[in-house]
Design brief:
disordered N terminus; mainly alpha; 55% helix; 17 helices; 369 residues; two-stranded antiparallel ribbon; Arc Repressor Mutant, subunit A; Hect, E3 ligase catalytic domain fold; 4 domains
Length: 369
């Protein structure tokens, strides 16, 4: 390094050049990696090239270490950080001065939608977009859903969300915690702005309960579904299960399950408290449930492979797995899987022997199959 006291140094004004790849290679080398491993890790084609790069860096490293120690001792890094901070603070002060004068302190890309930027960085409302802004605020203030309003006005959803939470539309430029008011930047009055913002702060609305729909901020009965809802409770009171009710009224069984447990319908008078309590006590016994499952399953499998197995067992009587397989023309694995499911449902069973024969259980009567 050069000596400030005038002592001659052969390294005075000498440039020490190194690359980021050399630094990464030196770090891996210090951890014990071989040249081949380092080459593969850094994507260097030839190990000879990597070897030369490391050799050059080994010559530079001692000077770098000495320079960092000397600079740290005299407070170089603290001063460097301080000078950068002072420059950053000066830039912020200049931007705050612009905001206090009603001028846009940030970049053009961050300019709020519906405003235009003049050459002196002053801003004004875009006359072509002002009607759209006023309609957006009025619609949301009256209970409209922001995303739906954006679609109707032909603007992106993220734009209307930024509009509803930006105070500039009521004449305020907020910068570094300070508010600067300029009436010429106002698009709507404070009351409309606050009511429109409430529509956004509420977040996305949850799906309405089955049989109801959103009308603004209120839940109102859906005439197309409310009769299905009443039929749902009526069928449950008769002891029918959720899958059966779902099949009758044409909805998913989870819709039935959630609706039957939702006290919302009792509170809205769709069902009386007494009837609600009675329905909550309806329990389907395991035997009755199994019977219904068997009936449904038999009805469903008439056109499936399992029906072939049941028909064969009914006509041929007790049969081995191989005999069933040949008769129904299915793979052994497929037949075995079907037989296990039939056994689980109580429709077929197997003799206790290791290679026992399969037979129909008494659960399948002539009326069933």
């Amino acid at each position: 390094m050069g000596n400030v006291n005038g002592v001659k140094n052969e390294n005075a004004f000498k440039r020490f050049v190194f690359t980021k790849t050399q630094v990464e290679a030196a770090k891996l080398w210090a951890q014990g990696f071989t040249l081949a491993q380092i080459s593969e890790n850094l994507g260097v084609k030839y190990t000879s090239q990597l070897s030369r790069a490391l050799s050059d860096f080994h010559k530079v490293a001692p000077y770098l270490r000495q320079a960092v120690q000397e600079l740290s001792n005299v407070g170089y890094f603290l001063k460097l950080h301080k000078s950068k901070f002072e420059g950053f603070k000066a830039a912020l002060d200049a931007e705050e001065q612009l905001a206090s004068l009603g001028k846009w302190p940030l970049s053009f890309r961050s300019l709020p939608w519906g405003y235009v930027l003049e050459e002196d960085r002053s801003i004004k409302i875009d006359s072509e977009k002002r009607p759209t802004l006023e309609r957006a605020f009025k619609a949301c203030a009256d209970g409209g859903i922001p995303d739906k309003v954006a679609k109707e006005l032909g603007i992106p959803r993220y734009v209307i969300r930024n509009i509803l939470k930006n105070e500039i539309y009521k004449g305020n430029i907020r910068f570094r915690g300070k508010i600067h008011h300029f009436e010429h930047l106002r698009v709507v009055d404070d009351e409309t702005w606050n009511r429109a913002k409430d529509a956004l702060m509420g977040g996305p609305r949850p799906p309405p309960p089955f049989g109801f729909k959103w009308a603004g901020k209120e839940l109102v009965p859906d005439e197309q579904k409310i009769e299905k809802l009443r039929l749902m409770f009526k069928l449950r009171a008769q002891g029918k299960g959720c899958p059966e009710i779902a099949r009758i009224i044409g909805v998913h069984h989870m819709v039935v399950y959630r609706s039957l447990k939702n006290p919302f319908y009792k509170e809205r008078g769709i069902i009386s408290p007494e009837a609600w309590d009675a329905i909550q006590k309806v329990k389907i016994g395991s035997k009755e449930l199994m019977k219904r499952l068997q009936e449904r399953y038999v009805q469903k499998i008439k056109e499936e492979n399992k029906a072939k197995i049941l028909l064969y067992l009914k006509s041929a009587g007790p049969s081995t797995l191989m005999e069933i397989q040949k008769a129904v023309n299915l793979s052994k694995t497929c037949v075995a899987d079907h037989l296990k499911k039939l056994k689980k449902l109580g429709l077929a069973d197997k003799e206790s022997k290791r290679k026992g024969r399969w037979y129909l259980t008494p659960n399948i009567s002539k009326s069933q199959f």
